[in-house]
């Protein structure tokens, strides 16, 4: 990991979140752009106290107090264990094709820290560039756009001719850490419009292209309401049949055959503005992500009954001080209470 961070006035250390047993091998101060190139300088680091829900912070003292706006380039050599809470592994038997394994990540809400050392809070937005090495018969995709459309087109073409090191995936617009995403599998794609395509295993790609054919029109409708779409592309990934839920990764249960469930895609496209572009600073205010995207009413009774009518988790803004795992608080409540607040204000 090479991290370029912008310092606050007088900052003396960098603190990164980790969990799931990330192994830190070394930390270095990098000095890119110097002539002649300067070798990396080792930096000390130490662990903070572990927390059951939040993991273990990695403290990296900086070589000197940093002035406001200064930029420091650090290198962190680490290993992510296969059992990371951010990663899900499928056996070939769990895929539609039945021939190759499948890997996908799920970093929301606070699992990016189980994939890479980072400041894993929604308000700590970042850009990233990644290179991924995979077997030639598999394709890697990330929550970023490949360096060129030629590279992207190749990834959906002759899978047996793919290089082992896939083209870099850079983000141009800062994203919250929970949007960091990786998938590796036997994948093919079909175009849905000039800036969107659907990816899936080859046997499901045609069904996905039919089901989500209106994606381009949803994008145009979103721009009419909220302004330009700044992310370059909007691609859908249809997950294997054993995948139980969908975010930008789309669950195969949406393949109704009659395009009747594509309102889910409209909801996720709305997050291109509400959530991905304008993001809640903390998980206490998760409802700010959802209230614009939830323009329909669902029954709250199920979640209220699950928690109890007077439970603090049924509040629009729950109290999460003291280190509460956001996954424990998650429900339909911020979606629907947020929607009703917006409707009332309108």
Automatic annotation (TrEMBL):
Q: Where is the active site?
A: 268 (proton acceptor), 335 (proton donor)
Residue ranges of region Disordered? 31-50
**Cofactor descriptive note:** Binds 1 zinc ion per subunit.
Concerning CDD domains, the annotation shows: M1_LTA4H
Alphabetically ordered keywords of this record: Cytoplasm, Hydrolase, Metal-binding, Metalloprotease, Protease, Zinc
What InterPro entries does this protein's entry cite? Aminopeptidase_N-like_N, Aminopeptidase_N-like_N_sf, LTA4H_cat, M1_LTA4H, Peptidase_M1, Peptidase_M1_dom, Peptidase_M4/M1_CTD_sf
- For this chain's UniProt record, which GO biological process terms are given? proteolysis
GO MF annotation: an example? metallopeptidase activity
As for family, the record states: Belongs to the peptidase M1 family.
Q: Where in this chain does the record put each Aminopeptidase N-like N-terminal domain?
A: 12-151
Official protein name in the record: Leuk-A4-hydro_C domain-containing protein
* Binding sites annotated in the UniProt record for Zn(2+): 267, 271, 290
> Short name of one Pfam family for this protein?
Peptidase_M1_N
Recorded GO CC terms: cytosol
Where in or outside the cell it occurs: the entry states: Cytoplasm
Record carries keyword Metal-binding: yes
Which residues does the UniProt record annotate as the domain Peptidase M1 membrane alanine aminopeptidase? 220-294
């Amino acid at each position: 990991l090479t991290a370029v961070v912008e310092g606050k006035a007088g900052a003396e250390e960098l603190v990164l979140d980790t969990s799931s047993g990330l192994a830190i091998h070394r930390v270095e101060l990098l000095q890119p752009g110097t002539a002649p190139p300067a070798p990396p300088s080792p930096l000390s680091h130490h662990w903070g106290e572990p927390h059951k829900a939040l993991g273990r912070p990695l403290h990296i003292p900086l070589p000197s107090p940093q002035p406001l706006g200064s930029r420091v380039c650090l290198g962190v050599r680490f290993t992510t264990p296969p059992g990371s809470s951010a990663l899900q592994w499928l056996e070939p038997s769990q895929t539609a094709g039945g021939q190759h394994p499948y890997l996908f990540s799920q970093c929301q809400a606070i699992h990016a820290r189980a994939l890479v050392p980072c400041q894993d809070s929604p308000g700590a937005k970042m850009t990233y560039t990644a290179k991924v090495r995979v077997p030639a018969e598999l394709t890697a995709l990330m929550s970023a756009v490949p360096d060129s459309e030629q590279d992207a087109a190749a990834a959906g073409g002759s899978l047996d001719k793919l290089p082992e090191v896939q083209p870099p995936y850079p983000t141009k617009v800062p994203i919250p850490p929970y949007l960091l995403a990786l998938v590796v599998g036997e994948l093919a794609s079909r175009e849905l419009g000039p800036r969107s395509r659907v990816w899936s295993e080859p046997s499901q790609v045609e069904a996905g292209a039919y089901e989500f054919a209106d994606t381009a029109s949803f994008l145009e409708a979103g721009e009419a309401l909220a302004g330009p779409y700044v992310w370059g592309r909007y691609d859908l990934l249809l997950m294997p049949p054993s995948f139980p839920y969908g975010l930008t990764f789309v669950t195969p249960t949406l393949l109704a055959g009659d395009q009747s469930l594509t309102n889910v895609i409209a909801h996720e496209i709305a997050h291109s503005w509400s959530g991905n572009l304008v993001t809640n600073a903390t998980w206490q205010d998760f409802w700010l992500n959802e209230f614009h995207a939830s323009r329909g009413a669902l029954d709250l009774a199920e979640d209220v009954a699950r928690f109890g009518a007077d439970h603090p988790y049924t509040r629009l803004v729950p109290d999460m001080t003291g280190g509460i795992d956001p996954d424990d608080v998650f429900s339909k409540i911020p979606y629907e209470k947020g929607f009703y607040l917006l409707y009332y204000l309108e």
